[in-house]
Amino acid sequence: MMTDTAVRKRHTGPVQSKKPVAVKEEEDLKKVNAANTSFRLLLEFEQTHLTVSPFRQANTLRASKEQTYAQLTVLFSVFRFDEVHFGKFLGHYLKRAYFFDVHPPLAKLTLTAAGKLIGYDGHFDFASIGDNYIENRVPHVFLRSVPATFGALCVPIVYLIMRDSGYNYLTCLFTTTMYLFDNALVGQSRLILLDSQLIFYMLCTIYSYVRFSKARHQEFSAEWYTWLLATGVSMAMTLSVKMVGLFIVAAVGLATISDLWNLMDVRRGLELTHVAKHFYARAVALIVIPTFVYLFWFWIHFSILDTSGPGDNFMSAAFQATLKGNPLTEQAIKIYYNDSITIQHRDTENFLFSWDKTYPLRYDDGRISSKGYQVSANSDANDEGNIWQVLQTGDEITGQLTAVRHGDIIQLRHVKTDRLLMTHDVASPLLPTNTEFTTAEEGDEEKYEDTLFELRFDVLDLGRQWQSQMIHFQLIHVPTGVSMFSQTKKWPEWGGYKHDLNGNKKIIDRANRWIVKDVIGREPGEDKNEDESKVDSMSFLQKFLELQSKMLSENNKLVAEHPYMSAPISWLVPTKGISYWHSPVSKSQIYLSGNVVGWVLGLACIAIYCGIGLADIVAQRRGFDLIDEPVRRRFQYSGGFLALLYALHYLPFYVMGRALFLHHYLPAVTILYMLMGAVFEFMFIDGTTSPASSLVRNESEMKNHKPKVAPHITTMRSVLTKTSYIAAAVIVIAQIGFFIWMVPLTYGTSMSSEMVKLHQIFGWELHFGKGTFLFKWPPLSHNTC
Amino acid sequence: MSEKQKEESIKTKITSAHDYRAYFRQALDASKRQPFTDFQIATFVTVIAGIVRLYKIWEPTSVVFDEVHFGKFAGKYINHTYFFDVHPPLAKMLIAGVGSVAGYDGLFDFNNIGDDYLAPAVPYVPMRLFCGILGVFTIPMSYITVKASGHSTAAALVAASLVCFENGFVANNRLILLDSPLLFFISFTIMAWMKFSDPRLQPFSFQWKMWLFLTGIGLGCSISSKWVGLFTVATVGCSTIKGLWDIWGDLSVSPTGFGRHFINRVLYLIIVPILIYIFAFGVHFTALPLSGDGDTHMSPAFQQTLKGNEAPATRADVAYNSVISIRHLKTNGGYLHSHASRYETGSERKLNGDVIVDVPLLTSRKEQQITLYSFRDDNNLWKILKGGEDRVENPDELEWVKNGDIVRLQHVSTSPIMLHSHDHRPPVTEEEYHNEVSGYGFKDYEGDANDYWRVEIVDHSSSSPAAGERLQALRSTFRLIHINEGCALFSHSVKLPKWAFEQQEVTCIKGGTIPRTQWYIEQNDHPLLNETAEMVSYENPGFFKKFLELNKVMWTSNAGLVDSHPYDSRPPSWPILQRGISMWSQNEKQIYLLGNPLIYWGSTWAIFSYLIVRGVLILRQQRGYSDKIGIVGRYFQDSIGFYVAGWTFHFLPFLLMGRQLFLHHYMPALYFGILGFAAVFDLLTQKFRPTKKILATVALIALIVGVFVVYAPITYGTTWTRDDCLRSKVMDKWDYSCDTYLDRNPLKSSVTEAPSFHPQEESAPLGVISANDGEKPETPMQPTPSAPMDEHSGEFGDEEDADDEWYRLNRPADPEEDEDEDDEDEEDDEEEEEGEE
Predict the structure, then answer these.
(1) Fewest 10 Å CB contacts: which of B323, B548, B562, B785?
(2) Distance between CA A379 and CA A438 in Å, rounded?
């Protein structure tokens, strides 16, 4: 249950809850003697890239003293750390409390389902594990096995993809072994993170698409439809795990377009209606159905999370009103004309304020002011100068209670000085580009127009009545179109060190948003007699669109620097890993970094692939035909698809503004290993098995048309030589050798400091080695372990 | 010879259907039969352009828009003081050269928009003339370019007059800005490239080589003026690759022949531009030998090459009790610094990146500030003392500071303050793995264990192996590890608040060893070190090191220009000319950078219709339809295709840029758009009889001149009437202020029917301010550097918010405004029709 104060803290916005949380956190951390640096670092890491900070604050609000001790315990039982974080997601799902995360819900739902399966029936409050943690530790191990299982399943799929693409079994085995022994992929899938599920669904998509292409000669057969549909569904599942799934969507999209383009080729002899049929089948299976699958998970997400929770603040007031027990609806007071209110700036939490001091005629820089009364932003919440009365404008002023709504033109009367808020074409004291706010005497005809302001709500709240707390609004000056704006900068002595306030010409600015804090003389709940149900409804689609745009915008805001973030260029050779966890007691640590052998070979394979491809095209232009046609086709189409996938999973990171980490490269690495297989077959195996797919056409199609040009069919078998075996053996042994050498860092087993030193290749920043910090750990009593 | 006959004769002459070049040749030869030579026509358009572009170039007599920067930079060159700018130096140096010849002494500082030129006698007219004349030359060059690509004289004239009467070009190119040299070089490059691509040229002939060389020169000058030139390089580069691909596929050219083609292009199109670019920087460094306000952007080694900034040689070996200054390696923040001011409670912290909140700083113990300070100062001096509980001090002996030693650092000028850290969050960076670093200590107090730091040498100069074992000034790079917290002394480019004089924050970071924890000693002195002790000084970076460093800094600063500006805009708004830039406004006059809307919309229309038609044709081809576009089609496809590619290369990259962008960034793309428009015009009028073609050309040019004249007052900054101004606002977001102008209608209606109110009509000083002279009521507003946007019309900004659609629907009707729009719409339709002809 949430206490009253908690409720109050929460609804006023993410910013305000900051203070108490900070105190709490500070105290807690002091109590444990600030020892668990590593843990905090880790938690920080998890939270910066998986959630956004206000969520974290809301979480830590609950972090009691006991919990912090529990976290300490976690510290010393390997791999437990992220469960604290993920436990919160599960806990929210199970308690049905609304939370916000930048990733789509599928992976978390899967974890929740797994949790539910083995008895997390909601009685167990995950968010305050505390003393019960140890008793309930078994489910954690089970939960950890969920992503690990997904990770393990990836291995056979890689084999199947290669086999069905028509590669020799040696190539398939080679690829699969290389993939299996990659430290980064192993390490990442052993932790409760989303990546193993992401890679699993991505591989499913690739496999389905390969099977679909194999069935291309049996068009519109059951098999053809099955794999087409499977492609669409698994594509949607990938996207439902992380937005990175968009890359696979792009890849499948491009492949489909090129496929359709070839079908349209007049030499294929297909009727336009026939091509249209192809088009519609793909449109339904690859666009319509995936959309529904994607939406379905969000529908589940919203159905489960129907109660107010830590994610409230991210959403619009209209959205929050749909959540059960949301504090906004409980606290909000409806505003009518002639109410007296205080207006608070949303970000700085200062209040719109005026007094009888005037602006100095001349500022230090020589500009002059209107010498009107000052209007500024006041940090003192209890100042009487913060109170403003909402006045109605226009002809239809009535004595009755009239609700204030979006788009209304209002005047604000400053109660203490009995003057009207206005702004005009005079530069403000600090920002010469912005207009000065001041007040005008009531009844001053000349200034009447300048006292008119238009009330403009956030898009989603348009239809609602103006209410305190809930509704973010802008105050737009009618004659000049500027928006009331405030910032943290303070005015000098003449302004009583109040905060700057002025009219901003840039209407789209976060700092233009205000809320009504209090309605003087009225209490929340007075309106309750009105026949308005407590929980509003909102259509699923609206909710989805709001959440989706919020996810994208919050994702782009993850720009805070982090010691372990890395640039995409540094991923090619794993010169910089991520330290996930370390324990000074057992001298063990988990350090995420790739298998250098595999990654460097992969880089070489890209170079070889591009080199050979380019050389072949250039040679062909001069009339040289150096490669057997079936080998070329395999190299161009199968290899090309893999190269495209790799490019799409890697290059877009270069234009991304957000903080990036090594694990963002893992889907691309997965594809890289398959590309390595393709290049391996080209280099070390004579010929290729071709064609890979059955060429028997279904009868209906045979009847319908005869291709004008017979498809270019050449059969060929791949032949293994001694070189093939030797090459495969050498590379695989190197890969496994490196894997084993790196095992202590991947599984987090204990290492001596000599071993650590030995492992510091490429400047990997390992703990307990020379040249890194020697942490001075305070003595720990054993009862916490 | 009539057009038809001409075409007939061409057709008979072409034997091979694939050789569309024959048509090209024919078209080029046809110009010989016209009454005037190309040279005469080009001269004629130059004269017209000169009048249009240089009209009243001395007006306004005060600083306009970014003249603030580029005028200032010219002054720096003249004074030889080092400055930093994100753009390469060539164009700036040219402007400075002109200024210097014209007698500019570099004293006027171009501080604010609107500063007067006349009183300080700044020779701004020659400087503007220089830019203006470069702008004038783009017009004959556009004529020649279109001609050289085989189009008719009519099309070339259309291109020239479009470039000439483009309000944006006119307004921008007559000011002291970099855009006009840039555009000059780009159009020069394209002209040379088109001349080079002339199929009549014999490969490897003198002319062929000359035009190739000139293309290279143009490319080099473009990238040396602004990095936008790289897009021109990409355009020409792709065209080159396509050309080489064709030659490679032509089996009649031997591999050696291809090799010669290849080598020539590499030499002239890659080597020559690179040499020019490097040369420009060479001149830049030579011209700026003195220390100036650009120093702080550069590394210490760079800085000490500037006069007035030389670092004196210092003693190499660091011993206990040495007085040292410690410098941060990876940022240019400077020296570890402290001063007698304390951290403040109630300080400001950043949250969520953009939200700034007041939070009482729970962690602050109000200890002395530790910052990074970029200038040499006595407050940068620290005495290095022994640390650790079990230390044995022997003050009379020299004892080297070794790797792994535990030390304390005592601030010399506020002694006994020691460098100190503890488990509190720093003032700005709130992350939990950062600790505050402060100066702590008072009289007769030994200090505590939180003053202990361990020296860890990370790297050392290869010339001195000893520097790896013990600290040596300049040679050892080291970290300072806080013993109790296990954190490393760290700094990053985060500024402290005002109360700490906005110096750079210093913290102690835990975990993650990152480069920004590295420090080195710049100055070192010890009383016991005698005269013979080894001295050490910075290695002098060679030209190439300086060149690379400056380019790297330019790149990061360029990407870092993310502040928002009232007149910045995003690329998608450019092709439709959604909004302009207010560049200057004073005394009921203003200059507002707004393009000729007809040209903007026309060129965008031409590009997109080309793309659509092309797409449809490709699709039809795939389905086996032959459209018989034949020779003429292929020829137009190549020419328009090149211009559209140029437009794309100069426009699309901006979509990916996160930095602050303005409308004038679209100008190079617009130039290509205009050339594309002219080519499309030629294609559409291809079948016209000569008289009809001439008529169409004249009508189009007249229309463009007409529109140009409408917007001329805000282009030149001349007087206008308020009614005309209001009528000219076709788009809502064109926010030039009509209230500036006299002859205003006092009863202009507004949203409500309340009596109208105009701030200007009030008695001074209300509503009247000016930068220097606020009490003159006739100067309505002061223009400020960032945004001279000072007046608002009723329409301004209403449509900017996300709910604008809703707002638009619900806004009370404004009869007068609607009328205005209607008028414009009509005019507009006419224009459109003509354009599509």
Answers:
(1) B562
(2) 18
User: What is the spatial distance between Cα B434 and Cα B429, in angstroms, rounded to a whole number?
Assistant: 7
φ, ψ for residue B226, nearest 5 deg: -155, 150
* pLDDT of res. A607: 95
CA distance A33 to chain B (A): 10
By CA distance, what is B775's nearest residue in A?
Answer: A368
For residue B772, the model assigns a pLDDT of 35
How many Cβ atoms from other residues are within 10 Å of residue B753's Cβ?
10
SS (H, E, C) B228-246: CHHHHHHHHHHHHHHHHHH
Give CA angle at B341 (B336, B342), nearest 5°: 95
List, for residues B213-240, the tens digit of each pLDDT value: 999 999 999 999 999 999 999 999 999 9
- Closest approach of chain B CAs to the CA of A587, in angstroms? 15
By the CB < 8 Å criterion, does B112 face chain A? no
Tell me how far apart the alpha carbons of residues B630 and B339 are, in angstroms, rounded to a whole number: 79
Residue A202's contacts (CB-CB under 8 Å, 6 or more residues apart) are A238, A245, A248, A667, A670
Q: Give strand pairing partners of A343.
A: A516
Which three-class secondary structure state does DSSP give residue B670?
Answer: helix
The Cβ-side half-sphere exposure at A541, using a 13 Å CA radius, reads 2
Rounded CA-CA distance A54/A692 in Å is: 53
Q: CA B243 to CA A236: how far, in whole Å? A: 43
Q: CB distance from B395 to chain A under 8 Å?
A: no
Interface size between A and B, measured as CB pairs under 8 A: 229
Question: Which residues in chain B have their CB less than 8 angstroms from residue A266's CB?
Answer: 622-624
Residues counted in chain B: 837
pLDDT exceeds 80 at position B32: no
Q: Alpha-carbon dihedral of residues B611, B614, B616, B622, nearest 10 degrees?
A: -140
ipTM above 0.90, yes or no: no
Task: Locate A481 and state its tokens.
Answer: 């179109």
For A458-503, what is each residue's pLDDT tens digit? 766 777 778 877 788 888 888 888 888 888 778 887 888 888 888 8
The CB density around residue A782, as the number of other CB atoms within 10 Å, is 6
Class of residue A142 by CB neighbours under 10 A (exposed 0-12, middle 13-18, buried 19+): middle
Q: What is the pLDDT of residue B23?
A: 64
Closest CA to A382 of A353, A345, A411, A418: A353
- Here the tokens at position B72 are 């200032």
What is the residue type of B712?
Answer: A
Q: Residue B237: left if φ>0, alpha if ψ -120 to 50, beta else—which one?
A: alpha
Mutate to test the interface with B, among A15, A368, A566 (most CBs of B within 10 A): A368
Which tokens is B216 given?
């290279």
Strand partners for B319: B400
Mean of the pLDDT values across residues A388-417?
Answer: 81
Query: CA angle, corner B623, sides to B617 and B627, nearest 5?
Result: 40
- Cα dihedral value A214, A216, A222, A228, nearest 10: 80
Closest residue by Cα to residue A642 from A599, A674, A667: A674
- pLDDT, one tens digit per residue, over B613-639 is 989 988 888 888 877 666 677 778 888
Query: A20-43 pLDDT, tens per residue?
Result: 334 444 444 333 333 333 333 333
Quote the minimal CA–CA distance from B186 to chain A in Å: 27
CA distances from residue A685 to A283, A451, A490, A629, A632 in whole angstroms, order as listed: 38, 83, 74, 15, 13
Respond yes or no on whether the N-terminal peptide bond of residue B690 is cis (omega within 30° of 0): no
Whether residue A591 contacts residue A764, with contact meaning beta carbons closer than 8 Å, is answered with yes
Question: Which of A529, A304, A480 has the alpha carbon at shortest distance from B758?
Answer: A480
Q: Does B513 touch chain A (CB under 8 A)?
A: yes
